[in-house]
Amino acid sequence: MPHPLGTRPGKVIAVHLNYRGRAAERGRIPDQPSYFLKPATSLAGTGDPLVRPRGCELMGFEGEIALVIGERAYQVPPQRAWEHVAWVTAANDAGVYDLRYADRGSNLRSKGSDGFTPIGPRLLDARTTEPDALRLRTWVNGELVQDDTSETLLFDFARLIADLSRTITLEPGDVILTGTPSGASVVEPGDVVEIEVTGGAQSTGKLTNTVVEADSALAGYGAMPRALAEDKAAAFGAAVAPTLTAQRRAALTEISVATLASQLRKRGFNGFFVDGVRPTRPELKMVGTARTLRYLPLREDLFARYGGGMNAQKRAIESVLPGEVLVMDARREADAGTLGDILALRALKRGAAGIVTDGGLRDSTAVSGLDLPVYSSSVHVAVLGRKHVPWDTDVPIACGNTLVQPGDVLVGDADGVLVLPPHLLDELITDAQEQELQEAFITEQVAAGASVAGLYPLGPDWQPAYRTWIDLRIDHRIDQRIDNRMESQA
Fold first, then answer.
1. Is 289 helix (H, G, I), strand (E, B) or coil?
2. HEC per residue, 81-108
3. Half-sphere exposure of 142 (CA within 13 A, CB side)
4. Which of 81, 268, 340, 448 could form a disulfide with 362 if both were Cys (CB 3.0 to 4.6 A apart)?
5. Nearest CA among 235, 110, 99, 117 for reference residue 176
6. CA 152 → CA 148, 352, 483, distances in Å?
7. What's the maximum distance between 2 C-alpha atoms anywhere in the chain?
8. Residue 320 burial (CB < 10 Å; 0-12/13-18/19+)?
9. Among 408, 343, 336, 419, which residue's Cα sits nearest to residue 374?
10. How far is CA 157 from CA 86, 131, 196, 426, in A?
11. Could you read off the pLDDT of 312-338 as tens digits, one per residue?
C-alpha cells in the first residue's frame, strides 16, 4: 500500500519520557530528553495490522504526536525550531516488551519491527497549528485510555528539535515521535487502537490499527520472547522499581500516622502532616504513592479552555494507577467542591488507594459509602467554577500547607494524612515498628497500675522487663503458627 508519508524518511526518532503523567508512572522525571531510533521500515498507516510476534504476550501501544521535518535542520536554536516542521500527525509507538531485554536501551527489536510505527491518517500543516495547544487521545476498543495535551510536555517541540539538531542533521521527511502520556498499556489480538491529534478545528482523523497474531513463530536463531517482572510492570504502566513494595505497604498499613509523625519529628521533619483534612471513612487505612492535581484560582476567561471537557481533574482521575493516592491542591478553599461521587467511584474502579483534597467534597454521603479512603477539608455542594480552575497534573503541589511531590508516600488513618519521603521509608518503618512495640508494652504496664515515671518514654530500669515481654510475644507467635499448622494438617 502507499507509504503514509508518500516517501520513506531517512530516520524515525522517538523520545523516551516526555509527559508529566508518564514520568510519574515510571517513577522518575528526566533532567534532559533522551531518545532512541526506530527503523523507517517500522512505519505503517491507518488500517494496517499491528502484528504481535508469536510467543509474545506484552504488545504495548503508545499514542503520540508525531512531527515531520520539512526543512533541513542543523544547529537550530529553539526560537527558530518550529520553522523546520512541515506537518503534525498522530502516531502509535508500538512495541513488544517480551523482547525488551534483548536490546535494552536501543529498543531495536522490541519497538523496531515492521509495522510498529503507524502514523496518520492526515497530516496537519504545522504553519496553521499551535504547538502548545495540541490534544492527543487514544482509544482501545472504543474506550478512551489516553487524553492529554502538549501543554504538559516536559520538553516542548522546539526544545526537542533544537536539542537533536545540535549534533544530528534532521532531513526533510524525518519523523520525531514526541512521547506518550500516561495510560499506555497492553493490547491483545483483536483489540482496536485508535489515536487522534487535534488542534483547534483541525484533526488528523483517527489512526486505526487492529492487533493480530503473527501467522508463524519466530525463527529460533536469535533472542526469543521473555518477559521479566520489571518488563511486565513497565508494559502495564507501573514504575519499574516501585517505591512501595508489597512488604513496605503491608508494614505501613499496621503503623499509625501518629507514630510515623513522631519518627519524622525525631529526624527534625515537622512539615509533613496535611493540615485540616478529615476522613470520610476513619476506619479505613490509606497507604499509597502520590499523584498530584493542582487547582488555580478561577478566571472566567480561562475556564472554558481549562475547565471544560477532559480537563486536568478528569485526566488525573483517568490516569491514577492501582495503589496511588490522588492528592489535590485546592489552596485550602473550603467553600467549593473539588470532587464528587462519580469521579470518586471512577478512581476506586481504577484501583486508587485514596484521595486527598484540601478543598471541599461534594456528594459526601455517596462518597462515604465507597470503599475508598477520602480526605477533605469540608463539605460543599458548589462545582469547580465557583472558586477553581483545574490546571495541571503530576507537578509538586501544596496540599494542607504541605509540599507533596509525585511519588511521595502518603499514609492516612483517623488522625489524618502524613507525607513520607520515599528515601526514608525503610528506616522509618523499622523505627516506627519498634516504637509501637514499646508503646504496647508501656500501655499494658500503665493499665496494670504502673507510674509513667521512667516508663514513658521507656527508661533503662524497664528495659529488662521489656526484653522479657518481647521474648514471650515471639514464643507465643511460634506456638500459634505450630497450632495452625497442626490444625490444617488434621
1. strand
2. HHHHEEEEEEEECCEEHHHHHHHCCCCH
3. 0
4. 340
5. 117
6. 7, 22, 57
7. 88
8. buried
9. 343
10. 13, 7, 18, 40
11. 898 889 878 888 999 999 999 989 999
Give residue for cell 507510674: 451
SS3 343: helix
Rounded to whole angstroms, how far apart are CA atoms 212 and 99? Answer: 17
**pTM score > 0.90 for this model?**
no
What's the burial of 299, exposed, middle or buried (CB within 10 Å: 0-12/13-18/19+)? Answer: exposed
Residue 375 contacts residue 339 (beta carbons within 8 Å): no
CA distance 356 to 373: 8
Average pLDDT in the chain: 90
Q: What one-character-per-residue DSSP string does 399-449 give?
A: ETTEEE-TT-EEEEETTEEEEE-GGGHHHHHHHHHHHHHHHHHHHHHHHTT
State yes or no: cis peptide before 225, omega within 30 of 0.
no
Q: Give residue 1's pLDDT.
A: 41
Give the highest mean pLDDT range of 290-294, 346-350, 392-396, 416-420. Answer: 416-420
If 0-12 CB within 10 Å is exposed, 13-18 middle and 19+ buried, where does residue 487 land? Answer: exposed
